[in-house]
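Saturday, quiet lab. Running sequence design on the structure tokens for the scaffold JK sent over.
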């Protein structure tokens, strides 16, 4: 992982500096700047003072201010624009550097396309079309996004995720999706291409990290409305100073009025707002989380309710069987054989672990000839059962309530000890599965979950953020309640089906809450699409990834905590820098207003609390500080304000203290120091 990060940073340092420099100057185009009204006003001011300088330079009799003063003001206004453009260009450059590293993955990849007659032809990956079948063997790069039609293999996804540990992908499972640019390291796979050229997941990753194409989020639009409003207010205020000066017979130059306007409008946040949004997406990408939009990152910061699957998120991977419990009169080996038949078509991880448990502890009861004439039913989320049927037998295995409903419809009844044993397993934190033949329950399978270490602390941190957690599980309510209490989630949804997940999300949204959900299976896709924030696992199905608005490239469901922290950090950074920017105006007001009128209204000298040396020095010092503070805050805008899991009131108080009070005090100190420096060099 570290090696890949260093590679991206090196790429950025060597090849992107020139592009950033060019982007910075290209964005002086007024057609681009008009999208940022605050910077557009600065552009007009810089153009106007430049024209005033040229007029005064060539027309000697029309001086209003010394040439050096007008030239200096114009110079620093242009630099204010360049610094603001540079902040956005740097943020975009980092994303484009990452995109360049991703593009390198797709270069010169060849594909073995399988023809209708079974023969293979080698073609460039770019020539593949949706629906094509390709064969990949050990050592090959996967040429395009696809679903595994046949085979199981270990795949190196480090080029995408940065993690060196290989992952297992196989057909007929929720881990059948493969990504272009990854490399197969064992066995072979037959893959069906699911995207046309230029539409693969890798292509979408490259396009999404091209931050220049990023649309503004609702919060950014709301902030822009605020900034436009403040700009209009200060524009009116500055315009009224002209008649005010005429009334007091004070000649106020246009250069000074422009300087005052630029200093009073929120140029700091206006210059950094785009960089903050872009860097939020880039920070998510550093965590190997692909955000489909800036809105997704922001939504993560506002989440109220979080839905998490138990298996793989709260517990370690798959549930494992620990014992078989036959009911009275049923031989343990007969129960084992029935379980093996019922699990034969169960492709879920639990189904495979049950088959392995039976073969290891009781032997193999099924030959290939025994399956002739049998109709197998794979496990499905809707039925929550798997099994096999023929004219003579009907054996099914599944959740206890599903099996109970199944046999009751056939006139059967549960054994007397059924409820007691189910409750006992549930109290132990296990999951019972029932096994039935025709209308009789033969016994139970005790599955055991292993809780992930440290997961309780993660839920404690989420609760400190004000987020309510809901555990989603297919277990019965008793088992779900036991595990929920053990790990510390706020509530749970037991015996979950796709319909129940959707219903829960809609109920929470109807109460005004924002809901996040993680998932990886096709059956999770509707709920992922319904949730305000859907996070799909990269190892999951294509349907899940297309329904979600974030994809975790590491396929680590517990990373939801980092996702939420990135979102909150983005919102905090924007809020803190907005507070700082607006607070800045206080010091600039005390610097420039006395400088404008002090000669004609000596009583205003009392407002010169910084004891600035001259009116020219006061105005120029404020303009220089206004430009340099953007440069000073670029690292904070890109890195983000450090997030702490505190309550809303505590965060607000902290932000006001640091960025509100700090925003007032820092300009007083900065403007005074610049004033001293200007006098030392004899400029004023």
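Result came back. Writing it out in full:
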């Amino acid at each position: 992982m570290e090696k890949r990060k260093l590679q991206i940073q090196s790429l950025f340092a060597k090849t992107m500096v020139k592009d950033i420099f060019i982007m910075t100057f290209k964005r002086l185009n007024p057609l681009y700047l008009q999208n940022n009204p605050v910077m557009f006003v600065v552009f007009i001011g810089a153009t106007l003072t430049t024209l005033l300088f040229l007029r005064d330079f060539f027309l000697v009799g029309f001086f209003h201010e010394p040439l050096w003063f007008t030239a200096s003001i114009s110079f620093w206004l242009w630099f204010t624009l360049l610094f603001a453009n540079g902040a956005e260009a740097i943020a975009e450059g980092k994303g484009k550097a990452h995109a360049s590293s991703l593009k390198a993955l797709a270069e010169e990849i060849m594909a073995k396309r399988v023809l209708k007659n079974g023969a293979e032809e080698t073609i460039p990956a770019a020539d593949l079309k949706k629906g094509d079948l390709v064969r990949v063997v050990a050592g090959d790069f996967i040429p395009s996004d696809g679903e595994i039609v046949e085979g199981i293999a270990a795949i190196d996804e480090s080029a995408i995720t940065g993690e060196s540990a290989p992952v297992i992908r196989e057909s007929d499972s929720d881990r059948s999706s493969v990504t272009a640019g990854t490399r197969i390291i064992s066995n072979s796979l037959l893959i069906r291409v699911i995207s046309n050229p230029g539409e693969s997941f890798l292509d979408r990753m490259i396009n999404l990290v091209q931050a220049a194409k990023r649309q503004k989020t609702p919060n950014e639009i709301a902030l822009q409305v605020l900034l436009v409003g403040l700009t209009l207010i200060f524009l009116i205020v500055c315009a009224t100073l002209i008649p005010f000066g005429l009334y007091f017979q004070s000649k106020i130059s246009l250069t000074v009025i422009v300087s005052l306007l630029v200093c009073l409008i929120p140029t700091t946040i206006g210059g950094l707002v785009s960089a903050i949004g872009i860097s939020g997406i880039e920070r998510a990408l550093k965590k190997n989380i692909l955000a489909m939009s800036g809105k997704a990152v922001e939504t993560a910061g506002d989440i109220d309710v979080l839905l998490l699957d138990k298996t793989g998120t709260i517990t370690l991977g798959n549930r494992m069987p620990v014992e078989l419990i036959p009911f009275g009169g049923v031989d343990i080996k007969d129960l084992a054989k029935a379980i093996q038949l019922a699990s034969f078509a169960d492709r879920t991880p639990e189904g495979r672990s049950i088959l392995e448990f039976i073969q290891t502890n009781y032997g193999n009861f099924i030959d290939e000839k025994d399956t002739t004439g049998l109709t197998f039913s794979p496990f499905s989320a809707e039925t929550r059962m798997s099994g096999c049927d023929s004219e003579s037998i009907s054996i099914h295995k599944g959740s206890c309530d599903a099996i109970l409903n199944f046999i009751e419809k056939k006139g059967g009844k549960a054994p007397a000890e059924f409820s007691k044993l189910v409750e006992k397993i549930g109290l132990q934190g296990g999951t019972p599965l029932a096994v039935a033949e025709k209308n009789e329950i033969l016994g139970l399978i005790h599955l055991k979950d292993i809780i992930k270490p440290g997961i309780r602390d993660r839920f404690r941190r989420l609760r400190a953020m004000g987020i309510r957690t809901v555990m989603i599980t297919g277990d019965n309510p008793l088992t779900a309640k036991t595990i929920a209490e053990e790990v510390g989630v706020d509530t749970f949804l037991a015996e979950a089906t796709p319909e129940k997940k959707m219903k829960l999300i809609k109920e929470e949204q109807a109460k005004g809450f924002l809901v996040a959900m993680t998932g990886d299976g096709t059956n999770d896709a509707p709920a992922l699409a319904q949730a305000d924030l859907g996070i799909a696992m990269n190892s999951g199905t294509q349907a899940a990834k297309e329904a979600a608005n974030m994809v975790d490239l590491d396929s680590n469901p517990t990373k939801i905590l980092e996702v939420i922290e990135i979102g909150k950090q983005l919102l905090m950074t924007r809020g803190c820098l907005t507070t700082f920017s607006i607070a800045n105006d206080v010091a600039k007001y005390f610097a420039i207003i006395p400088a404008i009128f002090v000669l004609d209204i000596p009583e205003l000298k009392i407002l010169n609390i910084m004891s600035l040396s001259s009116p020219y020095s006061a105005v120029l010092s404020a303009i220089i500080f206004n430009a340099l503070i953007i440069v000073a805050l670029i690292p904070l805008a890109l890195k983000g304000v450090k997030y702490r899991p505190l309550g809303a009131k505590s965060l607000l108080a902290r932000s006001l203290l640091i960025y509100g009070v700090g925003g007032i005090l820092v300009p007083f100190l900065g403007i005074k120091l610049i004033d001293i420096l200007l006098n030392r060099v004899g400029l004023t």
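Notes for JK: Confidence is low (pLDDT under 50) at residues 1-13, 210-214. The CA atoms of residues 95 and 209 lie 5 Å apart. Ask whether to fix the surface positions before the next round.
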